[in-house]
C-alpha cells in the first residue's frame, strides 16, 4: 500500500507487478481509479471519474465506486444515497496480499445523519485484470437497524451510445424514468437517453461490451438488485459536477440491496461484493 493524494484528497493505492493499479480516496472510502494491464503491460482505466468532481471533502466524489449506505437514493428519510460517501474513512493495515482495507465507524459526524452505531469495512482486492470490492457493515450498537445501499460503480466507457450490456434479459425491471414495471425483453441494453432502472439481480455475471473492450461484472447474492444508470445528455447537462459529455464516458452498474431493507441485529453483520473482470 502506498499513500497518495488525488486533487488534494488523501488516498491509498496498490499496484501489481503486472502494472494493474487501484486508487482509493479516504473521502467516501471511494475507489476512484482501477487500471487493468494487458499482456504487454498497457494500462486501461476501467472506472469513470468526472473531471468536474468536487474534491474539497464536502461533496461526494462523482465517479469511481461511491459507497451508497445506509440508504439507497431517496428511499427513506436520510440524505440521498446515504452519508458514508461523504465522510472520511480510515485505512486499516492488513496482511492479505494485494488488498486495501478502509473502515468507517459511527461517530459524532455520522450521528448528525443517523443515530445508529455501526462499523463499515471496505475491502478492495486487486488481481491481474480483476478488482473485487467488498462491503461489510456491522451493528455495534444494542438495537437493530436496517438499511438499503449500493456499490455505485461508474464504469468508464469509450462511447456510452455504442456499448451494450448483456445478461439482464428476463429480469424484473423497474424503470425509474418512466415509473414502469416490466420483464426485461432485450438480450442487450443500449444507451443514449436517460437510463435509470432497478433490475432483479441475476446469478450469472453481466457482460459490458465497449468496442473491443469487454468487462465481466458480478455481485454477491446478498445484493438482490442491480441498478443501471446513465444520465444521458439532458440530465447530464444539469448535473454541475459532470461535464456536458460526461454521460458518454460512464455507465453505472451498481450492486445494490434496495427493495427489501436488510435488518441487522446488534452484533450481527452483512456483507456484499461486486467483482469486475476485464476480459479484453
Ligand atoms: O447524483 P447522485 O446523488 O450521485 O445520484 C446519481 C444516480 O444514482 C443512481 O443510482 C440512481 O438510480 C439515480 O436515480 C441517481 O440520479
UniProtKB/TrEMBL annotation:
GO molecular function: carbohydrate binding; glucose-6-phosphate 1-epimerase activity
Annotated GO CC locations: cytoplasm
Keyword Isomerase (UniProt): yes
EC number: 5.1.3.15
Regions annotated as coiled coil: none
Enzyme class: isomerase
Catalytic activity entry: alpha-D-glucose 6-phosphate = beta-D-glucose 6-phosphate
Catalytic residues (positions): 152, 254
Any GO BP annotation: carbohydrate metabolic process
Entry keywords, A to Z: Isomerase
Family under the similarity heading: Belongs to the glucose-6-phosphate 1-epimerase family.
Record protein name field: Putative glucose-6-phosphate 1-epimerase
Lineage: Bacteria, Pseudomonadati, Pseudomonadota, Betaproteobacteria, Burkholderiales
